[in-house]
């Protein structure tokens, strides 16, 4: 893995490129590795294709974010070394999170990922909003970690084990008292993890944090920890509690409907684009949760496809926000008026990302939505399916508002917006992947089916 | 002397709820951090009690507690740094006076 970094190089730009290259090397290394599922360190980790998939996801997100952050001017130059180091460490911790199959490892990984994100959020030391966002994130995050840990302690007490598979088998043979304690423990754990992936009613921190954090960090936070949080939830539920699937399925279905409805409705009224995308990302978590609410291979496959599509789409959207913020120093929706005249490529790519978020064919988001919808319908969860359909319509409204501003309105200033090379590169990458996943989904589906081959689904 | 596990569970639940109440009702950011420490300590007592009373492998609970203590300390360090930073920026650590970001 990527670790060794020289912090004595005075040229921070060079440092950034080294980080990007090392993430790239790790990606290639991770992509070419194939071996059977192995447990490492007394089975504290499991390296299987599932972990592999999430490792690719996390590294891609981190690499693209570092590349995009070259163009972001608001982080003090003296802090660039720390910033890249934190991002790289973040990548390592995320891969650990995807491989953890043990309560202790899950706790350590989730907690250190959160701690890194608090610091990353507050990295603009002299910016009031950034500082406030990191304080809010810290307070909510620490309380949720504590409740997750409390849940873990009850689970440990009920099953006398901290290994997920052992917990599963011990739980089935537990007497009724211990069963009840274990269930309370599971609920507490879900509350803690629900905070991390910002599902309603545990979402209050998300808009503030996403708005206040530096834009590249927001891009990363809406994507990577969320996806890995889902990975942990999937591991916990499918490894330890497959026999309770119908119960937690119903619970997650309710949460999913709540999450997408609240996220989408509040997003409509937002005037700040980062805040709007924050609420939109809450709503997107709701769609992903819908895939989990119908436990089974189909649902799981849909979740992974959606997460992958969402990764490129959301990163791309936030990278466009970086480009506009750089030039106009504003995140208001008004700043997007007449963007098509100022930089046609930027407007086009933003339009594509927003349409993909709305789930319009032939883009990546559409593929994700189709699979979620198929899984939900297969499981006869009609209410859930109707909620998804209605919410997609509501969501399209506020996505189209931006597109209308970009193409149909005119701006007083018509100076063209220049894109630096690194940002252009990330935009093109995400743009191409959004199109590719949308047009040739079969490769992605193949990859994901491989990721699930070593996964114990019932 | 052997204390029954139920008593300990009641005790830690109360401790946890005291911490939670403090975290939700305090205005002072440092006070909230202290409340969170109380919650974490409830968890630690839980782990130790369970591993002492009937775990087949008591060491896993104890190791868990060691890690939990270390991470609690790390959280407190990061937390105080962030509180210090917010004080430098906004000259207050009362959470109801910190409201730049809101809908």
UniProtKB/TrEMBL annotation, chain B:
Where this protein primarily resides, as one coarse class? Answer: membrane
Classification via InterPro entries: NADH_UbQ_OxRdtase_chain4L/K, NUOK/Mnh_C1-like
Q: Where are the transmembrane segments?
A: 7-24, 30-51, 63-87
Q: Which family does it belong to?
A: Belongs to the complex I subunit 4L family.
Enzyme's top EC category: translocase
Q: Which reaction does it catalyse?
A: a quinone + NADH + 5 H(+)(in) = a quinol + NAD(+) + 4 H(+)(out)
Q: Which GO terms describe its cellular component?
A: NADH dehydrogenase complex; plasma membrane
Query: In which compartments does the protein localize?
Result: Cell membrane; Membrane
Q: What's this chain's function? A: NDH-1 shuttles electrons from NADH, via FMN and iron-sulfur (Fe-S) centers, to quinones in the respiratory chain. The immediate electron acceptor for the enzyme in this species is believed to be ubiquinone. Couples the redox reaction to proton translocation (for every two electrons transferred, four hydrogen ions are translocated across the cytoplasmic membrane), and thus conserves the redox energy in a proton gradient.
Q: What kind of membrane protein is this, topologically?
A: Multi-pass membrane protein
Keywords tagged on the record: Cell membrane, Membrane, NAD, Quinone, Translocase, Transmembrane, Transmembrane helix, Transport, Ubiquinone
Q: How does it assemble?
A: NDH-1 is composed of 14 different subunits. Subunits NuoA, H, J, K, L, M, N constitute the membrane sector of the complex.
Pfam families given for it?
Oxidored_q2
Please list the GO biological process terms of this entry: ATP synthesis coupled electron transport
**Which one of the record's GO molecular function terms can you name?**
quinone binding
Enzyme Commission numbers on file: 7.1.1.-
Would you tell me the protein name for this molecule? NADH-quinone oxidoreductase subunit K
């Amino acid at each position: 893995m990527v670790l060794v970094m020289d912090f004595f190089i005075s040229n921070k730009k060079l440092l950034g490129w080294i980080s990007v290259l090392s993430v790239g090397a790790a990606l290639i290394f991770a992509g070419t590795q194939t071996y059977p599922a192995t447990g490492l360190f007394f089975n504290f980790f499991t390296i299987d294709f599932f972990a592999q998939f999430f490792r690719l996801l996390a590294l891609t997100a981190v690499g693209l974010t570092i590349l995009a952050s070259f163009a972001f001017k608001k982080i003090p130059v003296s802090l660039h070394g720390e910033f890249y180091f934190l991002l790289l460490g973040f990548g390592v911790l995320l891969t650990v999170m995807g491989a953890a199959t043990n309560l202790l490892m899950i706790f350590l990984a989730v907690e250190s990922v959160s701690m890194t994100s608090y610091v990353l959020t507050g990295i603009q030391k002299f910016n009031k909003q950034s500082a406030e966002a990191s304080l809010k994130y810290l307070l909510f995050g620490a309380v949720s970690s504590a409740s997750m840990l409390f849940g873990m302690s009850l689970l440990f007490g009920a099953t006398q084990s901290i290994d997920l598979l052992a917990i599963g088998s011990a739980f089935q043979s537990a007497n009724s008292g211990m069963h009840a304690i274990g269930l309370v423990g599971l609920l507490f754990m879900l509350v803690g993890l629900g905070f991390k992936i910002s599902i309603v009613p545990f979402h209050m921190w998300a808009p503030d944090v996403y708005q206040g954090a530096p834009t590249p960090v927001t891009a990363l936070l809406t994507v990577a920890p969320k996806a890995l949080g889902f990975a942990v939830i999937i591991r916990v539920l499918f490894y330890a509690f497959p026999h309770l699937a119908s119960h937690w399925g119903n619970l997650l279905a309710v949460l999913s409907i709540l999450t997408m409805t609240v996220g989408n409705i509040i997003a409509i009224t937002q005037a700040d684009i980062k805040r709007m995308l924050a609420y939109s990302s809450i709503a997107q978590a709701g769609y992903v949760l819908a895939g989990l609410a119908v436990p089974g291979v189909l649902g799981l496959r849909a979740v992974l496809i959606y997460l992958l599509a969402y990764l490129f789409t959301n990163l791309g959207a936030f990278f466009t926000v970086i480009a506009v913020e750089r030039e106009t120093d504003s995140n208001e929706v008004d700043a997007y008026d007449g963007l098509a005249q100022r930089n046609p490529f930027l407007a086009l790519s933003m339009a594509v990302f927003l349409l993909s978020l709305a789930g319009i064919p032939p883009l990546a988001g559409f593929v994700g939505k189709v699979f979620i919808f198929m899984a939900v319908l297969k499981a006869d969860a009609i209410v859930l399916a109707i909620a998804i359909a209605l919410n997609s319509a509501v969501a399209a409204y506020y996505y189209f508002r931006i597109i209308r501003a970009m193409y149909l309105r005119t701006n007083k200033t018509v100076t063209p917006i220049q894109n630096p090379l690194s940002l252009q590169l990330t935009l093109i990458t995400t743009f191409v992947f959004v199109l590719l996943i949308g047009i040739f989904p079969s490769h992605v589906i193949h990859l994901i089916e491989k990721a699930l081959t070593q996964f114990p689904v019932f | 002397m052997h204390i029954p596990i139920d008593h300990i569970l009641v005790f830690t639940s109360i401790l946890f709820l005291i911490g939670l109440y403090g975290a939700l009702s305090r205005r002072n950011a440092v006070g909230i951090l202290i409340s969170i420490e109380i919650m974490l300590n409830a968890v630690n007592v839980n782990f130790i009690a369970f591993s002492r009373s009937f775990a087949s492998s008591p060491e896993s609970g104890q190791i868990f507690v060691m890690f939990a203590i270390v991470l609690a300390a790390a959280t407190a360090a990061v937390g105080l740094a962030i509180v210090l930073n917010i004080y430098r920026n906004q000259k207050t650590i009362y959470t109801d006076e910190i409201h730049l970001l809101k809908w």
